[in-house]
């Protein structure tokens, strides 16, 4: 007999009918088991209705709903994907200038037998870890740590994989005093001329310069329900309409979904998630990331260094060109 496993996660408004039906199926299963009653046909009907409902809801999400999925605390983080995709991973710490920033993780390992350097924004799974990770908002030392690892990758001719998931760079006083803008700018310049392949994947939020600082790459892809924007919907609505409560309206006009960003030729591809979001089936999403990385690495690792740099330069210069 079918079994519904209840998932413990934040229930979004548009998910409520789905959750209610899943709970109803669970009740039917428990009743049938406890009373030794055959309800297979009834449960099959409910399952078919559930699958139809999921497709109707999850395949027609509007931008503001995708923003909510991209920000879910249950959404897989950089370390979740690193643990599933990178073998023999060794994490490195510190920028050799100020300290370590745990909102950026990075190190070396092997991806399908290929030695690689992996860097990603890291959010927490609960309040305590989010405080430790500064909610995925890096300080300048985080970006300098990332650059240190990227320069090391260039030295040893290792491809670089980055996972982007940040609301933006931290804008606190200490971060500004330590050169937040300069750290981001240097990363943009240095990444544009690194003599090794780079692939960047937006796995959640791609927020402004905080995302770009590890996002200059030969290939940039986004997960299906991730977002990429110059500012948050709340920030845009506060500036334009002096009202942060209009964030949903802002999200609808910002062109921040993966589908919008692909149509603007800012990214190179969209990686499919499990139905309802990557948190519903991490293995499915990780497998699709693996396939994308394998296919693209094969192509860009064949290029000689000058061709690689020329193509990356052309790619960056095309962003924002109108018409």
Automatic annotation (TrEMBL):
Component of the acetyl coenzyme A carboxylase (ACC) complex. First, biotin carboxylase catalyzes the carboxylation of biotin on its carrier protein (BCCP) and then the CO(2) group is transferred by the carboxyltransferase to acetyl-CoA to form malonyl-CoA. Pathway: Lipid metabolism; malonyl-CoA biosynthesis; malonyl-CoA from acetyl-CoA: step 1/1. It catalyses: N(6)-carboxybiotinyl-L-lysyl-[protein] + acetyl-CoA = N(6)-biotinyl-L-lysyl-[protein] + malonyl-CoA. The lineage of its organism: Bacteria, Bacillati, Bacillota, Clostridia, Peptostreptococcales. Belongs to the AccA family. Its EC number is 2.1.3.15. Acetyl-CoA carboxylase is a heterohexamer composed of biotin carboxyl carrier protein (AccB), biotin carboxylase (AccC) and two subunits each of ACCase subunit alpha (AccA) and ACCase subunit beta (AccD). InterPro entries: Acetyl_CoA_COase_a_su, COA_CT_C. NCBIfam families: accA, AccA_sub, PRK05724.1. Keywords: ATP-binding, Cytoplasm, Fatty acid biosynthesis, Fatty acid metabolism, Ligase, Lipid biosynthesis, Lipid metabolism, Nucleotide-binding, Transferase. It is an enzyme of class 2 (transferase). It is found in: Cytoplasm. The keyword Aminoacyl-tRNA synthetase does not apply. It holds the Pfam family ACCA. Residues 38-299 form the CoA carboxyltransferase C-terminal domain. This is Acetyl-coenzyme A carboxylase carboxyl transferase subunit alpha. One of its GO terms (molecular function) is acetyl-CoA carboxylase activity.
